[in-house]
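Quick log. Single chain, no ligands specified.
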Amino acid sequence: MLSLDIELRRGDYRRQVRIEEAARVIALVGPSGAGKTSVLNAIAGLLRPHAGRIAVEGRVLFDHAARIDVPAHRRRIGYVFQDARLFPHLDVAANLRYGRHEGEQRFRFDDIVALLGIDALLERRPRHLSGGEAQRVAIGRALLSQPALLLLDEPLSALDRERREELIPYLQRVRDSLGLPMLYVSHREDEVRRIAEVVHVLA
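-> predicted structure:
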């Protein structure tokens, strides 16, 4: 369950966003500048809303009126960006383990590697990965942080059509196998309808 009612401000920019949604996989679509990434950053704790409230699965992450603002590192949010943002000096295995949560392991290393089909990549450095392979590693790293919610900010936008088609089945496997709430951002409605249960449009 995602419960979000926030006001975002930056200079002359103002945006009110409200989402009350019980669906497990939610998509946000809209043109550039509509505020999609700002919503993700607010949920992750990287951007502080001007006002409002954010709760995930009943856990309040931000409440301006109640003066609650859980630090980003304690929000249990996995974040996959447009570019993979892997550490170039580490191999794939070390990149996966970098954000590893030491507590209860709901998502285990070997299981995530198998799910994403990256077992043959573990000894490679990021410069030897295709764009789609790098994004699969980035998704794996986010999952191994043991998140309560996975945020995906246009994870296919930097890929050509062939690589997008290659990655979508892996996103569907993550959706179908893990039961993890996901918020997926894109400007491509045709793409998100293959992944999300419900779609919210930001004009």
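Strands lie at 2-10, 13-21, 25-29, 51-56, 59-63, 68-69, 77-80, 149-153, 182-186, 198-201.
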